[in-house]
Amino acid sequence: MSDEKTNPEAKSSIKSVYWRSPEEKEGVLNQDDLNQDIQKALNTQEQDSGASRRSFLKLAGFSLAATVAGCSRGPVMHAIPYLVSPEEIVPGLSYQIATTCAGCTAGCAALATCRDGRPTKLEGNPRQSWSGGLCAVGQASLLPLYDSHRFSESMRSKKTEARREFSAITWKKADEEIREQLAAIQGAGGNIRILSGTITSPSTLAAIDTFLSGFEKSGHVMFDPLSASSILEAHERTHKTRVVPHFRFDRAKIIASFDADFLGTWISPVEFSKAYAKGRNPDSSPTVFSKHYHFESRMSLTGSRSDHRAVVAPGELRDAIVFLWDVISRKAGIENTLPITPVSNKVEESIQSLSTELWKHRGQGLVISGSSDPTLQTLINRMNHALGNYGKTLDLARPSLQKKGNDRELTQLITDMQEGSIDALIVQGVNPAFDLPPEAGFVSALKNVKLVIRLSPYQDETSQLSDYVCAESHSLESWNDTEAIRGSYSLTQPTVPPLQSARTLRETLTRWQGRTTSDRDLVREYWRREIWPTVPMTSFPSFESFFQKSLHDGCYEHEGSSGAKAPAWVDSDLVAPKESVKPKAGELGLILYSKLAMLDGSHAHNPWLQELPDPVTKVSWDNYACLSPKTAKAKNLSQGDTVIISSAGGTQIRLPVQLQPGQHEDVVAVALGYGRSGTERFHGIGPAWLEAKPSVGSDGRVGKNASVFLTLLSGELGNNGVSVTLKPDGGRSELACSQDYHSLTVPPHLAPKGGEVRDAVRSTTLSEWKNDPDHAIGEHHDHDKSLWKDDHLHPGARWGLAVDLTACTGCSACVVSCQAENNIPVVGKDEMRRHREMHWMRIDRYYQGEGTDIETVHQPMMCQHCANAPCETVCPVLATVHSKEGLNQQVYNRCVGTRYCANNCPYKVRRFNWFDYPREDRLQNMSLNPDVTIRSRGVMEKCSLCVQRIQGAKAEDRRNGNENGVETIEVACQQSCPTSAIIFGDLNDPESKISRSVATKRSYTVLPELNTKPGVFYLAKVSNQDQHNDPTTSAHPTSG
Amino acid sequence: MDRMIARIFVVCLLLIGVVVVAVTADFHLPGNHAGYAPTQPINFSHRLHAGELSIDCTYCHYGARKSRTAGIPPANICMNCHQDVTSSFDTMLSEKLKAIDEEREATRIISPEIAKIYRALGLNPEGLPDPEQDPEPIQWTRVHHLADFVAFDHSVHVAGGIACQSCHGPVQTMDRLRQDRDLNMGFCLDCHRNTPAIASPDGHTTHVSTDCAACHY
What we know:
The structure holds two protein chains of two kinds.
Chain A: H1 3-6, H2 8-15, E1 18-19, H3 22-26, H4 29-48, H5 53-70, E2 78-79, E3 94-100, E4 109-115, E5 118-124, H6 136-140, E6 154-159, E7 164-169, H7 171-187, E8 191-196, H8 202-213, E9 217-222, H9 229-239, E10 244-247, E11 254-258, H10 269-278, E12 280-281, E13 288-289, E14 291-296, H11 301-305, E15 308-311, H12 316-332, H13 345-360, E16 365-369, H14 374-386, E17 394-400, H15 407-419, E18 424-428, H16 432-435, H17 442-446, E19 451-456, E20 468-471, E21 480-485, E22 488-492, H18 505-512, H19 519-531, H20 543-553, E23 555-557, E24 588-593, H21 607-611, E25 619-620, E26 625-627, H22 629-634, E27 641-647, E28 652-659, E29 667-671, E30 711-713, E31 716-718, E32 722-732, E33 736-737, E34 763-765, H23 766-771, E35 799-804, H24 813-821, H25 829-833, E36 842-850, E37 853-861, H26 870-874, E38 880-882, E39 888-890, H27 900-904, E40 911-912, E41 940-941, H28 947-960, H29 972-976, E42 982-986, H30 993-999, E43 1003-1004, E44 1016-1019, E45 1021-1023
Parallel strand pairs in A: 8-9, 8-18, 11-14, 11-16, 14-15, 18-19, 19-20, 24-29, 26-28, 34-45, 35-44
Antiparallel strand pairs in A: 1-36, 3-4, 4-5, 6-7, 6-20, 10-17, 12-13, 21-22, 22-23, 24-32, 25-33, 26-29, 27-28, 27-32, 30-31, 35-42, 36-37, 38-39, 40-41, 43-44
Chain B: H1 2-24, H2 46-52, H3 57-60, H4 63-66, H5 75-82, H6 89-101, H7 112-121, E1 140-141, H8 154-159, H9 165-168, H10 185-194, E2 197-199, E3 205-207
Antiparallel strand pairs in B: 2-3
Helix pairs in contact in B: 5-7
């Protein structure tokens, strides 16, 4: 270790490096706000301390009465066993059923953990080659199954002058009436359309085809609110096939993303995250580590993870792509006829370095874009073609089928509807009345359609305009199949008997044709007819064995490419991408994006997803206007001030401001999917007490609908085609941000000696790591002498976690997984605002850098299971003690709620039950994990390292008389992680994966100077900034 | 001075009140219900089944071998025997002899308690589904109940060779099931502290934990 490392001055240079919000960076938070907070807390205490003798006696009397009442014999409890027990169900024993996630169109295979005939947890299915883990949305898609707000039957509406009135009807009656009306349309040679989101189910598509073939004029239109229509369109032009290529991030050495948030929301995030992490392993030899360039105007999750992030002005993205094309075409010797628009110096530099790298690694690069302009996407295709990436990092032989939406057909449909040439419209999956801007004219055109039938699990904007609303079933209670990537199939089977009398689209359409085939048989027959003949004869003796095996595994994949041929490149004329909209002076470019948890808003009913802090802004329960701190300062705005965003067309919405470092100054970014009808239900979510405030805005909904600013022009659903003006309206709306408190920083004059430096996150660059692994991640703390005897012996296992910050993308799948596994309550916006969130896991997000040149690190933070745990020494009732296996145990029944432990925890990971959180919804309670106690009011809780899974595995070992089970324990956060960033295991076993990880020189513990000896280790983040002309390398804190 | 005496009097009265209430109240901590023997919907006798007939406990309570919960047996387990054994041995034998004497088929005599199982399953006396009678699950009254914050795993204890009677008492002598012991933490720890390791019937040594998180999570 060099002398500089131990020099306190060198240390203090590290101190200023990482910050979590602009306020913290400027020191405002530490001084004024903090003092105010403390003052506020003191004031409240003073008021409270006026407890009189009288009130004391009252309380004493009450507690005596409560004790007497509470200690009498408990109520008589009943137990109702099965009459005839299903053979495979043993009460209390969990089992897994393979299924497919229906959270988005990516269609990852999943496993549903069930108990006593009902699913309680969803996890990734390791049998599917390309997926793995399950994202936050997938994890949370369990909750709607037990949602009492779901439709339980069909409804018919009666149109009156002003509004529609809905009345419930039975399926039988609805089927009869609808069939009658459809027959009339059929007889008159009428025109029928089905409008849906992307459908990846081949059997459903077949059922739709059969249904529509009975009509003279018919059609099926798919559209995606998060559209990839431009990519499909571009491939239709360049390859004569309308597909999205299967992007292979694991094979790419150079990744260039132009505003494609592929780790967060773009097409298939779990798959891409897994492949991305696979291509970035600093410990591999020879080194496999891709380099990721990202061009964007706002700060996306993917951008925050990139190695080289270039911030582009609104409208400049198009120019940057054209510029890259120009450079690459020259290198490839292709004549470029496109005119170049100059880009900013920084972007030009990035493009030059990127093009050099791409050219150097031809066939190992990958250029992608999230643009909605097909001509721009065609240019991206041209680049990938010129670089020889097709067939290598872009697979067209087995393309992705996860996005099929066609914006052009959607526009045509709306025009047809306006003209009155559509007689019947069946809408399923999407919610066009909400997803599309009013200018698109969908809502007004719907009035010209005689029969509108809606299949939906919930009452929403579109169903309110429909003649019939039919209850659509949840994926966990129905049959389905999925072909997400060509040749890769997965099946969905019911994990529970249907909880509502709902049906799938496939079954419903079949019924309307007068057939009563069950849904299971529809799927099975399709597989027998279409898929079984393509299965190699040698693999399975019969169709039955093939189907049973696929059902058991949840998926079936054709080996290799099974002879599939990629479509060839078709030359076409070079068309100039259209000029993009650039904001005029005084205007800002509006970027509409989707948040990782909310996506297009179809999960707005899900409280877990509403409460999940956004991975970048860390705000939950709202959407907001992201502004760069500089712009906000210029406009004299601070976090939480409300502004009115208005476009030239007169559209307005009012949103609070969120300061977002790393964003371009001329940009305001707003999330889609908020302000949906149905979110009124969250008005009173969270504990009911005197000062509780609703989780919804003044209009009764969560957030504001920003889709009013979308554009549907010339067959493209655009998300950044509008310039807006911002006007402060003097109001304030405090955002529920979970990052600006629980700060680990200590003011220098208060810090203990050697404790000034709080390098909770550590990072390095690939070259430093390769050249000098001993010093690359900074000082490894030598433990000082301890006051404590080393008397925590771990004779058997010592459980621990290792978290790889290089692999972690911050996607927050683990947070929701932990919530589902450990029965963590939802507290609502007001409690989040009061810093009383209950998530056992949080993902700390740290920034580093100046201006827009920001580097971000995401750090999952949970109980560190310290050997010298500060919480244990202060607990007066020994409710938190150490186990022989290294777990920091929290004993709920012993805890009296002094909160000393939370106070003394340096990592701020303990959560206090301020209330008995509402559990009145008995249907919702079926999602609870019976292996984990529901905590009551006044009790402290925190990460238990999924001790119920450890105990479960041990019990299984004892039943089976072996010791293999404990080696395969996966904790909930680890199982869900798409990038395998979390490793759980036995630290005492030198051969375990965790011991090998901890032994690497990237491993460190947080706040080592406190000598808490955590059982949770972190592996420093490594980024690939290796380049001869890269200035950031030398500016790195740990280098000097 | 009078006030002083009055105060002491009030305090004493309060203390006596507390003691009286504590003694007379049915004071129990969760799980401490020794002696609890509620009436059940079917007069099932453990003395007859587990004692006299020596049926293994885990034949009916098969969950105890595999799962956390031992489980109350489903009615189809009862029917494994009771589709043939429909009444007491004596009743059935005398009917059979009588039938031989009278040269006729013996009629099925179903005892009133066993008839309740038939009714629950929606079966007619012949053991066939009765269209008039919808199946209706049997609602037993729970005898043993631990607090929610304790996780007790039956299967681990059964695998470790711990006799059911160690916790449940002489069930084989009880006509109506009674909770035998106060299932409190002291009761658990008596074993867990004094038996650091036990050898399972399969020869495997199992470490007995006294960690809080062995049961509380």
